[in-house]
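Forgive a beginner's question, but would it be possible to get a protein, spelled out as residues, together with the matching structure tokens, please?
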Amino acid sequence: MHVLYRISSNSYKKERLSFATKEYCLSNFIENVLNTSDKMTIIADCVDDKLRQTVNNYEASNIETIHEKLGSNGASFRFQVDFATSLPDEEIILFQEDDYIYKPANWPYQTCTTYHELIREALSFAHYVSFYDHPDKYLSPKFGGNKFITDHGVENTGIFRTRNSHWKYTNSTTCTFATTAKVIKQDQKIWRLFCSGDHPHDFQSFLALGSHGRTLATSLPGKATHTEKPWISPFFDHNLS
């Protein structure tokens, strides 16, 4: 598995978990997700001196850092896509943003597994995989939920189980997801169409991919969460504050 981790000192102004700094999220990801057999490329876009030092300290035999001045969320995502299309078709790629927190791979089932294995299993059922169970799938559109959810907060979906997790099919997620290089190469025109500006339009991208037969699955429960307070994965941790 090859992780493409985007990190920047700049962020959208949103209410986030107070402890979930860029440094914390990076440390959490490396501790809980990355295996020594995985490769990780940190794409450091316009990082300040403090964050630069933190990122550089993580360099190892399986972790490299690329310093860029791309200047926007959209530009750094397109850099990820370009990088992904240069990799062998069979390579599993995890597109990762810098404002997520992960549980250990065996949470909550206590199985002996890794995130690489979880992704590999799920990609037998879906083209794209995410560990973020987005709360907008349980919220009526009248209150800001996903527009394809019922007024009662119910998503019309399918559930499947792999060896180490339960999953559900869903219509969209954020720009944090896993797939293969082959799929990205085949889908890059759609990604570039909807992510051509400063902001990548992930919702529209996944709807377009779905209309072309692509499937997306997210783990149940979510093993990762966005750090924006209103959008914590359900049941992720009742003590987050």
